[in-house]
């Protein structure tokens, strides 16, 4: 991130210029000096607790539970890159409230992220990432955030917010392709993180991961990987009530990031076990 | 308190009596001394081009940047003091960033230009600061389409179809006016800009060109023109310049030949005239010499006649003298002979004188 010290004011000296000549209001400047290295250069601080919310001496609660959420995000590596997949639902509780919410987003030419959990928090995270990549763009020196840097950054952000008792309620998948190697990592809402050849968030961790463990190989072709992804999505869709049959697939390769148009998968609900889901689970209903 | 400013050039917070702010004027001069920077707004985007004077032979190519992105959809090219330019750029980036975080939308070109102008203007109003020695060409491509702005050290801001600042601005502006910007695409624009930059560069020393654009080809992002395209444009510009020079040379050659022809004609004419004059003169000379000879002959004749006459006169007078002499001689001879006969001695001189005086006295006495 571009560090913007209060250059003009410091050089000119206090009081010599009107406050408008300062690049940012004095209050913001001071806050930046307190801020951590990963603080955005403008806008609200990422990691401080809003003092107003603590006015009553009580920790704030309204951000402590998700409202509009997305369900699982899946990711797998393959021979030439990484595939990420998710549906496009923003659920308000169990209401399928927003059906075209794009939960897979491009960060830069080598990296894409997908998020489940609170979608407003995801939008906020995307704003942080956009600011970072905008700064990279403005520096115009050919450098950009590598996938593992984006991953580490998000780990720090989410862990730091957890430490403020004001977590960002997301599980994030970071996929990228850099230096001829695919990168795939995930971050949980409290900063838990790991990288793997296949990852999934939420329900997907239970429903899709077993399939991936069984069928995934690092040297899969794109077709094989896509087929596996479709299968995983379908399984998730069959079992996860908070999902819809409208998916997106993000692909990160040496050529860059492409995020597909939303598509639906063919489903078959005539399985006998679907007719009587409790047959193999006595005691359920 | 002496010198051209008479003390009114010490601070931007003082007007001169005729209404100038000299420090601001001087800032503008700093811009006028820098390498030329051109901006044109084509039909599908904006092209910026900068002529970078080579500070040193050891300088890395592509350094000493003059064009800077300040957001994805906007960028600037700075003419003047590079360091002041950086300050402007970093402010522009901060403004763009701030607008985006506040409104969630990229900053529109006119807002960014206005904010930069306001910022620049602030440095013209306080004694403790100096104005920026920078003119900023701002290219943006937002919802309102492609726009080009110029922010000057005084804090003025205008939107242009095309403009130029720096050393070669006058020539460049003239060339820009000839372009049909409404019909020109950015692809053509970069070549046009490169041509103009090469045309207005009048020093022996080489320069580095920096081209940046924002258009559909660049994905509506402010970018330096891809190296390959920039190289093509530069090659075209160099070729055009060479062609121009050759044309000029050809013109010179033809005019030289014409001059030579004219000269030869003039020389021939002169020669002829000279020959004629010589002929005339010779003729005249011949006539004159003839005349002279005649005159001489005449004179000789006259002279001979006169001589003859004179000789005759002399002879005549001699004869007359002889004739006149004769009686005298005769008389003398007679007298002599008579004297000899009479034996009288001639009186000495003194006696003769006395005799004469006495005779004279006698004469005068008889008179009275």
Tell me what you see in this structure.
The complex is a heterodimer of chains A (285) and B (368). Helices cover 31% and strands 24% of the residues of chain A. Chain A has two domains: 1-61, no CATH class; 68-259, Aminohydrolase, N-terminal nucleophile (Ntn) domain (Glutamine Phosphoribosylpyrophosphate, subunit 1, domain 1, 4-Layer Sandwich). With 285 residues, chain A is of the alpha+beta class. The longest helix of chain A is centred in the middle third of the chain and has 21 residues, at 119-139. Chain A has helices spanning 7-12, 26-34, 119-139, 147-163, 203-207, 209-215, 222-239, 272-275, and strands at residues 68-70, 73-78, 81-87, 90-92, 95-98, 104-108, 111-118, 170-178, 181-187, 193-195, 198-200, 247-253, 256-259. Chain A contains eight helices and 13 strands. Chain B has 368 residues and is an alpha+beta fold. Chain B has helices at residues 22-32, 82-103, 109-122, 169-178, 186-200, 227-342, 349-367; strands spanning 37-41, 45-53, 67-71, 74-80, 134-142, 145-151, 157-159, 162-165, 207-215, 223-224. In chain B, a hairpin with a 2-residue loop joins strand 3 (67-71) and strand 4 (74-80). Chains A and B meet through helix 1 and helix 3 of A and strand 3, helix 2 and helix 3 of B.
CATH topology of the largest domain in chain A: Glutamine Phosphoribosylpyrophosphate, subunit 1, domain 1
Question: Class of the domain at 22-225 in chain B in CATH?
Answer: Alpha Beta
Major interchain interface with per-chain residue totals: A-B, 23 and 25 residues
| Poorly predicted regions of chain A | 1-19, 22-36
- Helicity range of the residues of chain A? 25-40%
- The number of domains of chain A is 2
Order of helices and strands of chain A: HHEEEEEEEHHEEEEHHHEEH
End-to-end separation of chain A: 54 Å
CATH architecture of the largest domain in chain A: 4-Layer Sandwich
The CATH architecture classification of the domain at 22-225 in chain B is 4-Layer Sandwich
How much of the residues of chain B is beta strand, in percent? 15-25%
Class based on secondary structure composition and strand pairing of chain A = alpha+beta
Number of strands of chain B: 10
Main location (chain A): cytoplasm
GO biological process, one term (chain A): proteolysis involved in protein catabolic process
GO cellular component, one term (chain A): cytoplasm
Keywords (chain A): Cytoplasm, Nucleus, Proteasome
